[in-house]
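Suppose you are handed a protein chain with no further information: no name, no annotation, nothing but its sequence. What can you learn? This example shows the usual starting point.
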Amino acid sequence: MQLPDRIAARVAAFSLVGVVNSVVGIGVIVIAGLVGAGPIPANVLGYAAGLLVSFTLNARVTFHSRAVGRYTVARFLCAFAASFAANLLVVTIAERLLDSHKLLASLAGTPLYIVMFYLLSEYWVFRRQPGAD
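A reasonable first move is to predict its three-dimensional structure. Written in structure tokens, the prediction is:
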């Protein structure tokens, strides 16, 4: 199955934004740790920075032709929470099934997270407005 060019471009942009927000988030976690923050506060700061970068870049780059309304940020955070919850569910199941492969179990939910977050972003968070091209 071949994706239409516009969708393929959005998937590619969404993927690139994911890499950028991951680098920023991990960078903030490392820097926060280096200046004395504990693991939990460092992760909270890192994930918050990553989400801010993700929302900003997705709104401006990935879905730039779509209007961002009053509730877009709330929908974005809900989409993240739902996708992350699905990720954790898969990780929990994988951890039980792959007891001796902790790293594999830790990464098992990532594909579902990415696909779910993209689809929610495409069709709900940054949904095309009626009458738009």
